[in-house]
């Protein structure tokens, strides 16, 4: 992994976390125990903090930054799929952010919620715990299983 | 027939620009004064030039690729968001391309316009100055106003300030 300081702060990585060789961590980043950070990931905490919870999985080429005045927090056991982008937002415990989805500043993704691949969770949008959202801007998905067909993968 | 650039073409970087450690600049690439190219960004100028104007930022994991006969022109004070994809297109002064957005060949993003996060701007679409563009395929929604306009005006300035702080760092790398 590539670690760089910013404003005197170095990233901290738990001993049993797994960070790929090509991942870049800058500034006030904390990676908790058992978390996994994939190849090509950029976690750039040069304004506020980035915290990756225990057992969370941040997949390949994910980019995280922060808002001017809000941290980016990924909850324990959450999954951020390949190519997703997170700004200053909160992702709850066990939530899943789909591939190439985006979560913008001040948004909240509740515990166990699901953001479908390619969706854009708008600034300040709140995704309730356990909900599934899709589209840009993201909308709550109908609970009708037929409407959800083909989105799980 | 598409012509490739001479094999010797190599990047030109103004000494006051910030280039992150693992950014890739290949071929005919120019990066102007006070500009910044962030972690994992790729400027691919081997088929046609990629130019990043003064004070512009190309953020983490963004890709700008010149296509034969279609260079990428990024003017001054432009913001290219995280993971955006630019293929053979023009982005005029002060415009913002949102994170995860895609701009296809021949498109022109007018001065001070804003491409929303995740939008896909179709090939050849010419966006007039000061517009909001969103959707997939993206369409021109309306003139920028209110909070979006303020944010757009601040974006370039924020990154110019941030990149100065990066250039001022002195550290021994750890891996």
Describe, in plain words, how this protein is organized in 3D:
- The complex is a heterodimer of chains A (153) and B (175).
- By secondary structure, chain A is mostly beta strands.
- Helix content of chain A is 3%, strand content 38%.
- Chain A has one domain (2-148): UDP N-Acetylglucosamine Acyltransferase, domain 1 (3 Solenoid).
- In chain A, the strands form two sheets. In chain A, strands 1, 2, 4, 6, 8, 9, 11, 12, 14, 15, 17 and 18 form a twelve-stranded parallel beta sheet that branches.
- The mean pLDDT of chain A is 94.
- Chain B is mainly beta.
- Helix content of chain B is 13%, strand content 36%.
- Chain B is built from one helix and 19 strands.
- The longest helix of chain B has 22 residues, at 146-167.
- The N and C termini of chain B lie far apart (45 Å).
- The mean pLDDT of chain B is 93.
- Chains A and B meet through strand 1 and strand 6 of A and helix 1 of B.
What's the topology here?
The complex is a heterodimer of chains A (153) and B (175).
Chain A: E1 2-4, E2 12-13, E3 18-19, E4 24-31, E5 36-37, E6 42-52, E7 57-58, E8 63-64, E9 72-74, E10 79-80, E11 85-86, E12 90-91, E13 96-97, E14 102-103, E15 108-109, E16 114-115, E17 120-121, E18 126-127, E19 132-134, E20 139-140, H1 145-148
Parallel strand pairs in A: 1-4, 2-4, 3-5, 4-6, 5-7, 6-8, 6-9, 7-10, 8-11, 9-12, 10-13, 11-14, 12-15, 13-16, 14-17, 15-18, 16-19
Antiparallel strand pairs in A: 19-20
Chain B: E1 12-13, E2 18-19, E3 24-31, E4 36-37, E5 42-52, E6 57-58, E7 63-65, E8 72-74, E9 79-80, E10 85-87, E11 90-91, E12 96-97, E13 102-103, E14 108-109, E15 114-115, E16 120-121, E17 126-127, E18 131-135, E19 138-143, H1 146-167
Parallel strand pairs in B: 1-3, 2-4, 3-5, 4-6, 5-7, 5-8, 6-9, 7-10, 8-11, 9-12, 10-13, 11-14, 12-15, 13-16, 14-17, 15-18
Antiparallel strand pairs in B: 18-19
């Amino acid at each position: 992994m590539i670690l760089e300081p910013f404003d005197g702060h170095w990233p901290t990585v738990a001993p049993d976390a797994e960070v790929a060789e090509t991942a870049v961590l800058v500034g006030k980043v904390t990676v908790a125990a058992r978390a996994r950070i994939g190849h090509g990931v950029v976690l750039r905490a040069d304004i506020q903090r980035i915290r990756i919870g225990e057992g969370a999985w941040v997949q390949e080429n994910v980019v995280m930054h922060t808002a001017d005045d809000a941290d980016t927090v990924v909850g324990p056991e959450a999954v951020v799929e390949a190519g997703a982008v997170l700004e200053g937002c909160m992702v709850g415990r066990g939530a899943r952010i789909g591939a190439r989805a985006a979560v913008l500043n001040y948004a909240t993704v509740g515990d166990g919620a699901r953001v479908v691949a390619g969706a854009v969770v708008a600034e300040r949008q709140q995704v309730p715990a356990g909900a599934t959202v899709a589209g840009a801007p993201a909308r709550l998905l109908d609970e009708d299983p037929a409407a959800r067909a083909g989105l799980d993968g | 027939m598409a012509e490739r650039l001479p094999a010797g073409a190599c990047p030109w970087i103004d000494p006051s620009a910030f280039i992150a450690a693992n950014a890739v600049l290949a071929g005919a690439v120019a990066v102007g004064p006070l500009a910044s190219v962030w972690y994992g960004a790729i400027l691919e100028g081997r088929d046609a030039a990629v130019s990043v104007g003064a004070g512009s930022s190309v953020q983490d994991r963004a890709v700008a690729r010149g296509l034969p006969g279609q260079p990428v022109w990024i003017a001054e004070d432009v913001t290219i968001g995280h993971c955006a994809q630019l293929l053979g297109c023009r982005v005029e002064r002060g415009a913002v391309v949102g994170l995860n957005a895609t701009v296809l060949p021949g498109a022109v993003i007018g001065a001070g316009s804003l491409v929303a996060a995740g939008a896909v701007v179709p090939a050849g679409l010419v966006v007039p100055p000061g517009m909001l563009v969103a959707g997939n395929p993206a369409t021109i929604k309306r003139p920028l106003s209110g909070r979006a306009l303020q944010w757009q005006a601040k974006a370039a300035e924020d990154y110019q300030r941030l990149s100065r702080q990066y250039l001022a760092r002195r550290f021994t790398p750890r891996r």
